[in-house]
Amino acid sequence: MDRTRIFFLSFSMALVIQLLLFGVFVFMYQNNQALINRIENRNQSILMAEDLRRSSEYLTAYCRYYIESGDEQWETNYKEVILIREGRKSRPDGWQFSLRDSMLNLGFTDVELGKMQLVKKEQVWACSYARI
After folding, report:
1. Each residue of 41-100: pLDDT tens digit?
2. Among 31, 49, 100, 130, which is least packed by CB within 10 angstroms?
3. d(CA 119, CA 76)
4. Which domain holds residue 9?
5. Count of domains in the chain?
6. What are the distances in angstroms from CA 21 to CA 12, 13, 86?
7. Angle at Cα 87 formed by Cα 83 and Cα 88, nearest 5°?
8. Of 49, 54, 59, which is closest to residue 116 (Cα–Cα)?
9. Separation CA 96–CA 121 (nearest Å)
């Protein structure tokens, strides 16, 4: 083989290897971005669950205080938390969105949303039971 042919083959192989490496780096970058998105989604889901837990504790406490004292302020507080959860009233930080819409945006499954509806029904039942 002459030198020109050897040079051409070597150059072609180097070019193919560089293109393959470029493809691998692009693939790695895309996977890294997908991982970052999943981590952010997970963190948002954890914050959402914490917010739900906290508001459920508030609802329980407000219901209990209302039963013990009969003070209408506790019932008002209870209704305010419900309205904020449903997105019909702005949150203290100014955002206005329902918990269900936020869960849908974060990609919660139908099973998880169904459990959320079950909890909501139980809270309504508990509140109506407390009024009896």
Report:
1. 999 989 888 888 888 899 889 988 988 998 999 989 988 888 888 888 877 777 777 777
2. 31
3. 21
4. 3-131
5. 1
6. 14, 12, 50
7. 55
8. 49
9. 22
